[in-house]
Design goal:
- This protein is mostly beta strands.
- The chain has a single domain, classed as Tubby Protein, Chain A (Alpha-Beta Barrel), CATH 3.20.90.
- Helix content is 12%, strand content 41%.
- Strands 1-2-3-4-5-6-7-8-9-10-11-12 form a 12-stranded antiparallel β-barrel.
- The longest helix is centred in the C-terminal third of the chain and has 15 residues.
Length: 242
């Protein structure tokens, strides 16, 4: 792995802040997928250059934590990511869009994120069902590098949607993928590193009390935005993810 990846692989991951059921319910895509303990994970990907790619996140025993499916977009290098739990139930859908040096994505859940939230007028799940905006991400991109933020969307006292930042993430410049994620308290809560030149595998670690679904989404979106890691090798290293 590259120098940046080697350094990131040595970093110590800390616990997150999603420690109570109420906080998990409020801030996690899926409360059941908040890590109970610090967990080493691996992400694998199967390429289909023309239609869809499929992958999985597994723990160190090889048990599947989640699966995902990505679909290439059109102009703007946007991608759509479907994430499922181990039983195949939809956890979320994420849609990304690239604007050269800026990349943005939105995360949608099958259920409302807060009381009286309306379904999104433009987005639907793959079966045509309604979905509800849960989170947004913004990424500043450079040549094979990027940094960004992940924020959840909730309602204020007047019922208006407001964004609350949960995580900041960084991919240092490099041909292979490496990423760190910090929460707003400054704790390193996750790391992901491509261990070699194989673009279909990522190794990582996620801290306890951390939303593992959000970590999977961020990994995919950052790889797509920066053209590295799991999707490196698509043209100029551009991800054709979901």
């Amino acid at each position: 792995m590259g120098g940046g990846g080697s350094k990131i692989a040595m970093l110590e991951v800390e616990a997150g802040s999603l420690v109570t059921d109420a906080i998990k319910q409020n801030k996690a895509i899926s409360p059941a997928n908040v890590m109970a303990a610090k967990t080493k994970v691996s992400l694998s990907l199967k390429y289909d250059m023309s239609v869809k790619d499929t992958g999985a996140m597994m723990d160190e025993t090889g048990s599947v934590l989640m699966t995902f499916k990505s679909t290439p977009g059109g102009f703007g290098r946007k991608m759509t990511l479907m994430v499922y739990d181990a039983s195949g139930k939809v956890l979320c859908m994420a849609a990304g869009k690239d604007n050269f040096t800026k990349y943005s994505f939105q995360v949608f859940k099958p259920t409302p994120s807060y009381a009286k939230q309306s379904a999104d007028e433009k987005m639907k799940l793959e079966d045509g069902a309604d979905c509800y905006l849960f989170a947004k991400g913004e990424i500043d991109c450079g040549m094979a590098k990027g940094k960004g933020t992940y924020s959840i969307v909730k309602a204020d006292a007047e019922g208006d949607a407001v964004e609350t930042k949960l995580y900041e993430f960084l991919k240092p410049r490099g041909m292979v993928f490496a990423m760190t994620v910090e929460n707003v308290q400054g704790a390193l809560v996750a790391k992901m590193v491509q261990p070699g030149m194989d673009p279909k595998k990522i190794l990582g670690e996620i801290g306890s009390a951390v939303d593992s679904v959000a970590m999977l989404v961020i990994t995919n979106m950052l790889a797509d935005a920066t053209g590295g890691g799991m999707y490196y090798g698509y043209g100029a290293g551009i991800a054709a993810g979901v």
